[in-house]
Batch of 3 targets.
Target 1
Amino acid sequence: MNKIKSIAVASLALTVGLMSCDSGELRRTPGHIYAPDMTYSRAYDAYTSNPNFEDGLTSRKPVAGTIARNNELPDHLVEGDTNAYKTFTTSLRFNEAELDEGRRLFNIYCGICHGNNLDGQGPLQTSGKFASMPANFKDAKYLHMSVGQMYAGIKYGKNMMGSYASQLDIKQRWMVIAYIKKVQSENGGDPYIFGATTAAAPAVAEAAPAKEEPKH
Ligand code: HEC
């Protein structure tokens, strides 16, 4: 009997205990914050407004006229200047790893339409749901297309193909073109010109002050 009583008391206590957790209203405050200076950043978060700048934006654009490290110089190509497209080129040359990166990027951004083997038969095209025929890079029409024209195609898009300027930076665009040109060179296109003749020069090491043991 005693046992049943104590079970009843315990379950009553548990019910009351649990009910007291639910105030029946929505809780709008998170309660106590253990480390407020971590919960609420003192720095301006990227997408919050910022009274320190006239335009109120916290995320700043690079200073006009500057180029971030490891980025290419601007290309100065003007949309619609098709004569410039034809002669536009680059002095960039790529090693095996970069060529491989070009293939990887192509398969991510272009293969869906142009096909991972560059024949214009990507899944979007073969699904029949895409109204326009993507370029078949193995076709005579594109085998000898100038690299500048390809670059313009990526930067500005063409008809049903959108621009890839925001997805691929300048070097990445050229790596993708190098990959296309490499495949084309193996399928009756022009000789491949993007190959690095020597191994890529090692990046200039930052001049770090040598750490020395303090002498006594
Ligand atoms: C949504 C499908 C689609 C995607 C994705 C796509 N393309 Fe295209 N692309 C097309 C179509 C369609 C054309 C044919 C445009 C025309 O001539 O009307 C084309 C044409 C081209 C041309 C020829 C441009 C010219 O001047 O005739 C190049 C070069 C090209 N694409 C490169 C790429 C590269 C590189 C990527 C990836 C970064 C890519 N495309 C992604 C659909 C696509």
Target 2
Amino acid sequence: MEKILAEFRKQVGEFEVVDIDEARIEALRAELDVQAPLNLRWTWTYGSEVEELRALYERGKRGQWNAETDIDWSLPLPEDEWFLPREGALLMPSLLTLMGKDEETCRAAARDELAYVLSQLLHGEQAALQICGQLTNACVSMDAKFYAASQVADEARHVEVLAKFIERKLGTVYPIGGTLKVLLDKLLTAPTWKSKTLGMQCLFEGVAVGIFDDLQKKSLNPLLSDMIRRVKQDEARHAAFGILTMRRVVKESTPDEMAEMEDFAYNIIETLNANQQLDMLRLFGPKYGIDAEMVVQMTHALPEWPKLNSDMFMHTVVPNLCRLGLITERTESLYRERGIMWGDRFGMGLDEDVAKSMVTN
Ligand SMILES: [Fe+2]
Ligand SMILES: [Fe+2]
């Protein structure tokens, strides 16, 4: 299996990271035009053929909300209050607390990290918006076209709400990380609706559900809680679309096609995991006196590292890939070696919002 971004791989301690130099990242950000071949597909069947997708589409219609008027933007995100617990929720404040830094510095680092993480999610939302637009063209059934169209509206709202939250409450939208740009471009240029669905709807939506669920559970700020709760409910429907669609795809696939999808999924998840927040640590390192590579080495030395690291993957993506038969003995040990998979294959069971989205009535 050839690794994505192989030329930017290097060892930091025991772990192989992806570390793209700043000049290359700048060049990646400047690539605004992406050639994305797309097969448009007509269908003449307007009645429902895929009952569970039609039900999801109905659920999507009922779940619409308005990012400007349904959110109480007058709620503050005060600089002198913790919006997440000081330790255990974000990397930098936990680290600085260990280093004996004062409360104010740790809180400032928490804000910087939140702005950075939400910015990356924001760029991901823009990619989801564009890929779902492609899916309305490429999907085969009218049910899938309807559903993808309703997701386009969801993703536009997510871009809107995250951009507003960052601009109004945090101040800075940070540019996209290099690894993320490469992976999102891969999905945008993926040749078939099947690979786009697997990549965006199963992998990225699954990771997003994991991150949003974690933030929602830990948030101490009413505005942040409300925004995340709303976005997460939508993302759960999107993840459900991925699972429902891929279940049918998997049933019709040959062993070779299954192996190809298994490799595709592994390569994307492995690369997503391989940056280990180096981009962010390099950006804020000088401000807080943090040595990025040292942090990677230190966290990897922790006995609980695989558990901590795998949390966002074990939440939704890994269990779903196992259920679909897209993590087999061939790749399971690789996922485990890289700290993406830990403990039971099915993790904590299906996310409640995702499960609710998959019910037909
Ligand atoms: Fe989204
Ligand atoms: Fe989404």
Target 3
Amino acid sequence: MDLKGKAALITGATSGIGLAVAESLAKAGVRLVISGRRAELLAGHAKRLPDCVAIPGEISDAAFANDLFARAVAQTGGLDIVVNNAGRVATGPIDEIDIDTVCAMVRVNVEAAFRVAHLAVKHFRGRGSGHLINTGSVLGTKVRAQIGAYAGTKHAVEALSEALRLELAGSGIRITTVEPGLVRTDLHRDIAKKEGVLPDVAEPLTPADVARCVLFALDQPPHVNLPRIMLLPRDQAI
Ligand SMILES: NC(=O)c1ccc[n+]([C@@H]2O[C@H](COP(=O)([O-])OP(=O)(O)OC[C@H]3O[C@@H](n4cnc5c(N)ncnc54)[C@H](OP(=O)(O)O)[C@@H]3O)[C@@H](O)[C@H]2O)c1
């Protein structure tokens, strides 16, 4: 499969997995629209990567998400790939956790992810092709103590992805959910010190490990779909 000249929108591309996917796709000659809230950081990535446009904003703001999608389509002339990746985490015992932070997480991980999937599928249907990559998690099929709310959001992404796979059979549209275990990224910056929340893994995944899997899914012949790719650090017993 030649990805050269294809067009992709990547949400959550200011850091971590989204940025690594952007870098890999850029190397493969994909034209990019990247998004995230940290505007300066995003603009720097867009300057560095070839054929890349930055559109910063708050993805859980419905007006921004709709506008982002419309501008990405206008900018590229049509999207072939959407990487639905923006996400955040909230952890802690449910009776102690800051419930407003949990609700903000749900708005990004579920509401915005569903909206982006909705927009992507609608757009792909008009073109008769396209590939939606959802960033799920190993916690989309399993749970750990103190991270149940996050796991719930990722279970929701799994449910939507599986239903979409069934709905989209015969449409020319593919959907893949990537399910990483522990990846060393900014996601955990606020919880790294909370005892017992993060799994004890000597060597976590890197964002590049996840990006390699995304490329692998995108690189399949048109008749092949990889609905799920779970990748774990070798020593993560979950
Ligand atoms: N790290 C892991 O262990 C792990 C494991 C499994 C799955 N995941 C999933 O991987 C995805 C990427 O996370 P990451 O680990 O790469 O962490 P990260 O470096 O913190 O990336 C999260 C991305 O989402 C964006 N984002 C967060 N809230 C947003 C909002 N309200 N509006 C717009 N953009 C927002 C962030 O950009 P701004 O901060 O600039 O807005 C950032 O680009 C998430 O869906 C996460 O749940 C991560």
